[in-house]
What does this fold into?
Amino acid sequence: MDTFNNDVIVKEIKGRLSIINLIESYTSVKKSGRGFVGLCPFHDDKNPSMHVDEEKGLFHCFSCGAGGDIFGFYMRYNNLSFPEALTELAKKANVEISKSPLKPTKDNSRIGPLYKLNNAALKFYQKTLALKEKGKAAREYLKKRNMPPELIDEFSLGYAPSEWDALAKFLAKNNIPLNLAERVGLIVKRKQGDGYYDRFRDRIMFPIKDLEGKVIGFGGRVIKEDEQPKYMNSPESPVYSKRRSFYGVDKSRDFIRREGRAVLVEGYTDFLALYTSGIKNVVATLGTSLTHDHGVILRRYTENVVVLFDSDESGIKASLRSLDVLLDEGLMPHVAPLPPGEDPDSFIKKHGAEKFSALIESSESWIDFFIDRTLSRYREGSLTMNQLVKEVSELLIKVQNPVERSLNIKKASEKLGIRENEILSYVKHRKGRGQSGSNRTASYSSHEKLLLTVLLKFPELSSVIADKNWPEFIENPEIQSILDEIISGGVHDVSNLLVHFNNRPEQDLISEFLLSSDGITDADTAGNMLESCVRKLTAGKRDARLKALRLEIDQAVKDKDQQAEKKLLKEYSDLRKQK
Ligand SMILES: [Zn+2]
It folds into this structure.
């Protein structure tokens, strides 16, 4: 979503809206020292731990780590994407977005032609499907699969003809650069001789679109059942990443919001089967299991996700990963077991849409389902009481929302017939050992923190470290990516930085560090602090390497490997000299 050049609008909105007023409408804040504090709405806060700095336009919770500017707060609170938050806050601030159109950034202008090209291909496939003779078999296939013309239209389905280079020829005739078509994987270079051939041939084409409805790739399904592979998708490209894409979400997201629930399936066939039978709050992954990126996207629309699975033991196992990802991203998964061997498409064909809706309606919380299933394994004698408590507690640890977690701990203690404290102490113990929480930022050293804090306050000093080999001595990945943005992006305004990292752990770090940068006031001191951080970080890195080398040398001596010993000794003495 950072493909908008929205600097001007963002500045305008920030100038007009006060972060205190905005946050006050969600949680109470009161003056404290130079700033404001309030109860943090992003964790189960008992003592006010959220600090708000009006002047800097930032908030930060010193307990759970949530932080950012008004956009960050609004997105997080309402589960919105950046463009959605921008639109809504623009309204609140009376800033007209349509008068100042969102211009594409440099990045967007590089990938813009790829969308256009995909769109040209979509039109070509649609036209071919409509051709009297060429498209006949494909149209008959779609009819047989119960895909009505309205659906074919709504999802822009098409047909790739049974020829080696029909699309390549069409693109060439229309002066569309073939190397671009190769980049998005629509055509493939011939191994022998010149020219290209079409990747998709004699297939029904399902365009894959992003949230804004732009074509990012294609899925193709054979129409002759004996052809292989049955399904084929566009390869990864600058516009298409399967880890981040859902099929059909541009059409279904409003239904998901309205129903307060999403039904998760795999692939466009299952998606369209549900959608045509009136179950429109559906999303489908494409050739990959659910990823954390998918979880983040889903969370914008709903907390409740129904996962369908084959009800035998292996079907449950196959779904465990998705369920874990959902819990980890703070969503509440529900499960609806299908009869063994069935998928949504075949179930609807066999039993009808009403039965399927009933299945969704009766879906059960994954946590309840898991506890009941584990409890019956205990009753059968295949688990001890200790194992039972352990397995249930391990699942409850993954629940991110503290309110949900304590509710479920209560429920579990009732079902298992043990005291709440027994589960609670297990959960606390495991959490204390560094289990993932909602704040998953990796740890950083105090010098890494200081270095970034100084640079955030004085971005113009980035030249001090730009010519040093900083990725060598900065280890925290979030700090690395923020530094990279400041240095290579030439960032001088921290607001832009926050927008770039919208809704990510980087935002939390930036706001935390900015709010703790009050002691640093003049550029000279800041410059000296930077130099000293770099010295200490490089020295630390060197000492760690020296220590490792000593162990490696000992090992080489033990192994009587003289060649290795000699090489390691040389590295050791060279490194010592740098001290
Ligand atoms: Zn918090």
